# Entry
Amino acid sequence: DDSTPPATLSARTLPALADYITKSGTCKKIVIMSGAGISTSAGIPDFRSPDTGLYANLARLDLPYAEAVFDISYFRRNPHPFYTLAQELYPGRFRPTVAHAFIRLLADRGLLLKHFTQNIDCLDREAGVPEELIVEAHGSFARQSCIECRRAFPHDEMLRHVQAATVPRCLNETCGGLVKPEIVFFGEALPNEFFAHAMLPREADLVIVMGTSLTVQPFANLPRAAGRGTPRLLINLEQVGGLGGREDDVLLLGDCDEGVRKLAKACGWSEELERIWRET
Ligand code: APR
# Structure
């Protein structure tokens, strides 16, 4: 029955972790926590990598500091830098990565309890991960509305503005507020859906953290919610967020696509992963 704690295992090695996933019979609920690092191979820059990260390449927007481009108080004063950037980041031009395909594979196998993502690119949805299994902790470009009266703004209108890099205004003449995609800016609250599920890692049989620096709260606290004895796998270029500090933590330091390919191979899922990725 589900109340028995998952088999504690010192999964210091990938084969031991793969056996836990495929043979123990007690790894049924996997929670994934991801960030920009799972989309860089799709051509979307992450935020904080030196040289290639977005925050190192915004000089042309003449911002007081890099994060201002996603700061709600700065946006109110000057929405132009965001709308210049939105033209480059807007979904529709990028293809899901192998890491997204791996998340889809887990969902197909009924092993995905929830995918918490900080990304706003919707590439997990495009890879076919069921929407009800995704928590977009920092929102996404999927919807847009007026930041004053909250009135929704039509998608086709938004596309026009994004392509022209012009600033859309509320359709309510009496309001005239700025329209913004429903992505969470610094200074805004995360969606209720995040808090409604934030304790879910406690029920996980396995936590996988991928492609994130775990520097932004409250998302960065999620891995800590994993129960004792629940293995936590980090797939990331660098060690982050205290991962590796617990006996059952497993570190797969390196490229996300390579890391999920290694794990899929150890689980005997290589064929399935490549087929899913080819179809995205
Ligand atoms: N493979 C593995 N790791 C990678 C790869 C890759 N191909 N590319 C980048 N990384 C790693 C980086 O080393 C870094 O640790 O992914 C992490 C990306 O960290 P950030 O750039 O800080 O992105 P993220 O953690 O998603 O940022 C969180 O900050 O600006 C806010 O709201 C924004 O959601 C964003 C949040």
Observations:
- The longest strand covers residues 139-146.
- Strands lie at 30-34, 112-117, 134-136, 139-146, 179-183, 206-210, 232-236, 249-253.
- Residues 1-11 have pLDDT under 50 and may be disordered.
- Residues 50 and 262 are 26 Å apart (CA to CA).
